[in-house]
Amino acid sequence: MSFHQELRVAESIARQAGLHVLRERARHMEVSIKAPNDLVTNVDRSSEQLITAAIREHFPGDAILGEEYGVTPGEDASQNTGSRRWLIDPIDGTANFAMGIPLYCVSIALQVDGQTVVGVIYEPNRDELFSARRGMPALLNGEPIDVSSCDRVANAVLVTGFPSGRGEVFERAIEQFVHLTRSSRGVRRLGSAAIDLAYVACGRIDAFWEYGLSPWDTGAGYLLVECAGGKITDIEGAPYHVDGPSILASNGALHHELQNALRV
Ligand code: 2AM
Ligand code: CA
Ligand code: CA
Ligand code: CA
């Protein structure tokens, strides 16, 4: 299977959803609080509804997992495609979106047997569409992209994020941030895990790590990094899985040294 059609459909839906969130933000945005450090807006919900309806129209047998509405099983039993599941983040970077910081995106991935085969990330404020299908080069607005070539942590620009809960993992992430801020060229905190991964894929950032993300945060981005020549594991160096506890994504050259540096 080449998944050519799935990629085209995902690209088109991500663009539509991205333009929807820009338009709706200007028209009518209501912010509500899921938990103390966890915001959501009406636009997160309407974007997910738009994306889910569009996927349904093209692939009625596929299951969908979205951040705001959870699992929707395949509708049309006769076309039920069992192992296929779409992962949707209708707005990644909701806190930025709610505050008016223009760093957020739409992320859509198709997984087959638990592996991403198509991944698309669209940043509407920059009109940048990152896309990949397994086995092909990763693209930015249709042009092939590559990870960076930086091979020393001391020369690297890194990015991370922090878990929303306060506890042991949060404290560990803070310690890693302090240590890597001392030992690298700098650590950014953009507030969108999908953008972090897209920027590793296109070489703007050398590596990314974070604990506690969900399948819809990383499902598209990890394929982008792989297809752009990078490496993905968890922070301990074990094989990466979207349901796993952490992610470490790098240009490959830095991976081993950074993994050691994160053992603080
Ligand atoms: P979101 O904007 O889709 O919620 C910010 O560090 C990154 O972590 C974003 O990609 C954000 O996704 C994600 N994230 C996951 N769970 C979160 C939570 N409970 N609160 C805030 N951000 C969360
Ligand atoms: Ca959220
Ligand atoms: Ca997210
Ligand atoms: Ca989200």
TrEMBL record:
GO biological process: inositol metabolic process; signal transduction
Transmembrane regions: none
Alphabetized CDD domains for the sequence: IMPase
Domain of life the protein comes from: Bacteria
Presence of the UniProt keyword Cell membrane in the record: no
Cofactor annotation: Mg(2+)
Reactions that this protein is recorded to catalyse: a myo-inositol phosphate + H2O = myo-inositol + phosphate
Keywords annotated in UniProt: Hydrolase, Magnesium, Metal-binding
Record-listed Mg(2+) binding positions: 67, 89, 91-92, 217
Signal peptide stretch: none
Similarity remark: Belongs to the inositol monophosphatase superfamily.
Protein name: Inositol-1-monophosphatase
Source organism: Lujinxingia litoralis
